[in-house]
Amino acid sequence: MTQLERRLGPIDAAAIVVSNVIGGGIFFVPILVAGLVPDARVMLLVWLGGGMLAFFGAMAYAELAALRPRSGGEYVYLTEAYGPLAGFFTGWTSFVAGFSGAMAASSLALAMYLGRFVPWAGDATALVTVPIPLVPLVVSRRALVALAVLALLTLVHARGLGPGRRVQDALAAAKILALVVFAAAGFAFGTGSAARLVAGTGMVTASGIVGAFIPVMFTYSGWNAASYVAEEVRTPGRNVPLALGLGTLVVIALYMALNALNVFAMPMTALASAPGDRLVDAVAERLFGFATANLVAAFTIVSIAASVSAMVLAGPRVYFAMARDGVFPSGAARVHSRFRVPVAAIVAQSVWSGVLVLSGSLAQLVSYTGFTLVLFNLLAVAAVFVLRRRIPDAERPFRAWGYPWAPALFVAAAAVMLVNELWRSRGTALAGLAVIAAGLPVFWLTRRRPPQTGGDR
Questions:
Q1: pTM of the full predicted structure?
Q2: Which of 50, 217, 243, 336 has its Cα between 20 and 30 A from that of 449?
Q3: Confidence at residue 457, expressed as pLDDT on a 0 to 100 scale
Q4: CA 55 to CA 249: how far, in whole Å?
Q5: Is 2 part of a structural domain of the chain?
Q6: Is 4 contained in some domain?
Q7: Which pLDDT score, from 0 to 100, does residue 448 have?
């Protein structure tokens, strides 16, 4: 069986977007941006500009998802626009690090924050080391907690979209509510200054603005999450674009509120020098006169759990689509007869993520593939131009807003980011391409079998 059920509504899919985007980045990236752009007005404009670029990208994905409402996101779009190898590379990246690596890093971070309440949960002391050549696996209490988080959320999502979407919606709602309450209480009752919102403390340069956009765009990454589950969304021609647009706009509003609150609470110089792991504590202490370490830790646990849950849900749909097309091991294309989800793909992703939890190479692997993730976003948005030229008469239930200027602006901005990364970290970018190229044997071995039926319906 290779058919999935359409059980997700637009709010369910939008919750996946919000959970995928809002992770830990918003709690330390503002420090980096304030250092690069020492003017509150310009800094807020950079955050707004990054949000608009994310929205332009989301609208391009919305057109593609409505045109081809299948599981897999950019795997589907790159395959149709550029051929099966391009599609395979983006799916391979998702499996190797894009989803699995991010899940591993997030689950370890969750265990660290849990350590504030249960000290042993954050203990990274090695208990057992498995001496595998080149990449030894290290078991610690922190790693065991991270593995337990992965196992629990894998079990939830393997039991079908019913329990999976309920957990996902609840975690996303808790995350949004906590951020809204914190921002509203800060502005209403906190000790701050609105004058700081229009104050500058240093010279703003063009290179500083370009440099600031890079971490901002990484903080917005995940705006495309609803496209991965398009095959399970009811009336996808209407609801997937709605979910992508709504989810991205919610994130923009929350990010703008939080960044404005940061500046309201402290001058730009203080923001730029705030401790990277205690930004929210520092803001709360200035607003309310006391630190909120435990409250922040509790919120962060919920926030990270929502992100991991969204990735456990979205990622396997890519491998499912690849396996159905004959470019990934065939087991990933099987849909459970009762739960109607790709259980094998869900389990495979979490198993590999668990290996990364135990591996000391996690940080390097994730950093290596950051370059290629931006590259694939660029190629997917550019696919709008390719497919409009190639199949101009195809039915398009949704057309990207602002075409051609909005998607062209996204492509140009992503290209600047890639060139900047090649210039600043050429070795890391090339290493990322090497990791992706390592998937070629899998591509050649699996593509020999015919694709399975299923997909658009």
A1: 0.90
A2: 336
A3: 43
A4: 7
A5: no
A6: no
A7: 62
Q: How confident is the model at residue 452 (pLDDT cuts 50, 70, 90)?
A: low
Q: How far is CA 410 from the centre of its chain?
A: 17
- Work out the pLDDT band at 116, boundaries 50, 70, 90: confident
User: What's the chain's length in residues?
Assistant: 457
pLDDT at 207 over 90: no
Q: What CATH number is given to the structural domain containing 18?
A: 1.20.1740.10
Asked whether residue 449 is assigned to any structural domain, the reply reads no
pLDDT for the residue numbered 256: 97
pLDDT tens digits for 330-360? Answer: 899 999 989 999 999 999 999 999 998 998 6
In single-letter form, the type of residue at position 93 comes to: T
Q: How far is CA 111 from CA 43, 114, 138, 213, 355, in A?
A: 32, 5, 15, 30, 16
Instruction: Decide: residue 2, CB within 10 A, 0-12 exposed, 13-18 middle, 19+ buried.
Output: middle
Whether 416 is covered by a domain: the verdict is: yes
CA 158 to chain CA centroid, Å, is 20
Mean pLDDT of the chain: 89
Q: Cβ of 249: how many Cβ atoms within 10 Å? A: 16
Domain that holds residue 234: 10-444
